[in-house]
Amino acid sequence: DYDFGAAFDGDGDRNMILGHKAFFVTPSDSLAVLAAHLECIPYFQRTGVKGYARSMPTGAAVDRVAAANSKEIFEVPTGWKYFGNLMDAGRLSLCGEESFGTGSDHIREKDGIWAVLAWLSVIAHTGKPVHEILQAHWAKFGRNFFTRYDYEDCESDSCNKMMSELEASVIAANFVGKVLTAGGKSYKVKTADNYKYTDPIDNSVASKQGIRVIFEDGSRLIYRLSGTGSSGATVRLYVESYESDPASLGLDASVALQPLIQVALELSKLPQFTGRDKPTVIT
Description:
Domain Alpha-D-phosphohexomutase alpha/beta/alpha: 29-141
CATH superfamily of the largest domain: Alpha-D-phosphohexomutase, C-terminal domain
Organism: Graphocephala atropunctata
GO molecular function: metal ion binding; phosphoglucomutase activity
Strand order of the largest sheet: 9-10-13-14-15-8-16
Number of domains: 2
Pfam families: PGM1_C_vert_fung, PGM_PMM_III
Shape: globular
InterPro entries: A-D-PHexomutase_a/b/a-I/II/III, A-D-PHexomutase_a/b/a-III, A-D-PHexomutase_C_sf, PGM
């Protein structure tokens, strides 16, 4: 019967937001909602809002808020250090990552307690419960359905081969414009690459940060590989599907994303390379 819930990790730098009946707010949506309501927080009333940033795998919901508010939006590699340069340069007010980290320029680190207090400010300002805040946000901006599949302790050589073959496929000249279909839905490829980031402040370069497939409707597939040592590799698959149809905004994420998940698995041959028929963890 509770209307609001929050969870933290051991040191309080990560946070999870829940509404009535365990209504789950994805970190990507949480970041976007805060971005859309920063004016209700006294700190930003004093300092103004400079810009927003998210890690590359994080859902792009905040990008739509940035466009509506005529603010800068930065997409950076995974790793909080990439937000620090932007904060120091005065380009960034709010940032977040899909792994439940949220922060602002009041400090250079992620701050889960601050994020929850910011959410309480939004609730007080709007007078709405969590699920209604999200519904209003989706009605205005559309919804970025998002999930992450983790395949842990996989065979390193097979995973490296999978990523190499996948990269070769997506950077091929004929891949852009290709239509990928599953579950009665079709997705036309707009661009694809192995993500490379050039820091706009110090011009440092971070390359091979994850294979991206971006579709014309704004949907995305991201593949990342980590921990390829003797203990086994972890493959992370990020699936994001944008939906603006009001009739579809309330769908369960697992239902809305199923066609694109199937596309992601078929494109990468992930089950064949990992020998897994399901992920270890779904977020």
